[in-house]
Protein 1
Amino acid sequence: MRFQPRRRTILGMTHRAVVITVSDRCSRGEAADHSGPQIIERLADLDAQLVHRECIPDDAETIRRTAQTWIGRCDVLLLTGGTGIAPRDVTPDALRPLIERELPGFGEVMRQRAFERTPTSVLSRAGAGVCGQTLLVWMPGSPRAVSECVEWLTPAIRHACRQLAGDAAH
């Protein structure tokens, strides 16, 4: 998809969203991406419109370069995959140098809420941060987990996007 300028809707701001799936197998076409579509299905709840979507490999330089491409060109960059502790799970490590302000509450909510059903969720390194006026959120790669995380974080994502866009109301 091509980059699209910010649009206003009758109900308010429509945030520009980029969805990136981090997966070696999906990026090579060996597996279907089921997590990215889960995020895209929930974009309306985030008051967001998709401006770009892609699958990239679990490679720190590729993840960082892709994020840098979209920072400043979208309001929210949503990534799925690469947040565990396996050797190829490098999404948080790749994004860390880009983050100007960490938002630890995002990761805390994702792990705590998921822990109620999946005790191994404490191994997740999902999280969020801000670079310029772009909110970055990196979530687990499981379709169910990413769907739940977006649901749990919807109010915070919407509020953060509004604040980063200059809405001073708290």
Protein 2
Amino acid sequence: MKPPIHDRQPVYAAGKALEEARAAMIMLHGRGADAESILAFAGEFRQPDIAYLAPQAADNTWYPQRFMAPVAANEPWLTSALEKVAAIVEHIGLAGIPPERTFLLGFSQGACLALEYAARHPQRYGGLVGLSGALIENGDRPRTYSGSLAGTPVFLGCSEADFHIPRDRVERSAILLKDLGGDVTLRLYPGLGHTVNDDEIRFVRDLLGRTEDG
């Protein structure tokens, strides 16, 4: 199978232009979805002065295997996906928005990617949001991360019994991100299914609203 080349894929935008925005959010879609589908959540956050950027994954998939598979099984797709996120973070910074006003959010496979990127590149972000996802690191063997999230607000929301995302993986991710210095909020919802609920939307909306212009 020829690996997809994520860096050749478009990045869609909503909200304010980067040069005029007070903050920016990178939004990562799930497997089989597309950038425009997750970008639709921007309207529900009701923060129009933020720049929302959603990259498109090649073939609508960031990596081929489940996030619990050995990491090597998802290469070179995973590295390509992480590099795509890094390029957008850099682009946001060049537009004048620092990491502490840059948010990373993803759903499902996109959530796993967002969490893994932040864990591998820890610094003070505006916020880190994983909706129905967990760290990719724990697929083959426990690994340690270095550096510090320096108090970055981290939100993990998931069903208590998500078929795709085992509860123990989410809980382990919360511990690891807290150990990295994240200010972690973990919410497990009974009977949610593999989706996003109103409580999660409100949390993100409030998180974005607390971010002041630097």
Protein 3
Amino acid sequence: MKGNSTSQYFWITAVYFLLGFVNITLALSALACMILPFAMAAKTGKKTWCRGYCPRADFLKLFSRISKRKAMPLWMRGVNIRNGILTYFCMNLMLILFSTYMVSQGQMAPIERVRLFIAFELPFAMPQMFPIPGVSDTLLHFSYRMYSVMISSTILGLILSLLYKPATWCAVCPVSTMTDRMLKHSKPAKN
């Protein structure tokens, strides 16, 4: 199946967030969206994921009719904002890994609710339609953390797409930034 500019993968984003209500451990499917862009770039030498397969990009395009469709401000176009967002998400991923390790060692209680932007815990627990008995606290914690980072970045992307053009998130997306850097460093130097 070849990716194109029409919104054909938006449903993956919607299904992902619904699956969190089925069972939070299904949130670990987000790892595919964190690995596939780099695997595709390594194979093709291009940003194949970003240019045709990213479900979040297709999801954000759905809001183009209500978007203000303004150009991104100049301060958002520079490398500093991309680096800032990349740093924030790298710190978030480090926190996910460290806190998951701490839970696995019994040094910390697992989180049992979604947290927006690392710190803001939702005031309600997500219903779990099909709880899986015997799932470790470590796996539950990791799942809630992954779901939290995915919903936080989607909310940020949605805000940007409503205030500016729908693809604004793509310009500052940490996966896009890292893929750019990977491709830049993988190209042979010209003599």
